[in-house]
Amino acid sequence: MAENKPAAPKAENAQPSVVWNDKDMKSVYANASNVVAGREEVQLLLGMNQAWQMGQSKVSVDLVERVIMSPYAAKRLAIMLSATLNAYETKYGKIDIGLEKKA
Asked: 39: closest CA among 63, 74, 67, 65?
């Protein structure tokens, strides 16, 4: 007869281990993005900028993916992106995207 042993107590703030399953994953390259949000969701639009010449009055972006997430998931993504870019800039130098800081 098998003994029923009580489960070990879980730590209050223990994080579960995450197993990433990449079986159905696809990769998409995007060089243009936009973010729109409503009360219930945040949408990340990814696309390919088709402007090959500087100074065009109109730029066409072919959308390739739309990622829809809750505001909570979007906040976690923003934190992870910020940390990743800070680490990148520490290692490789600042990324200049042409935006001036306001005084």
From this structure: 74
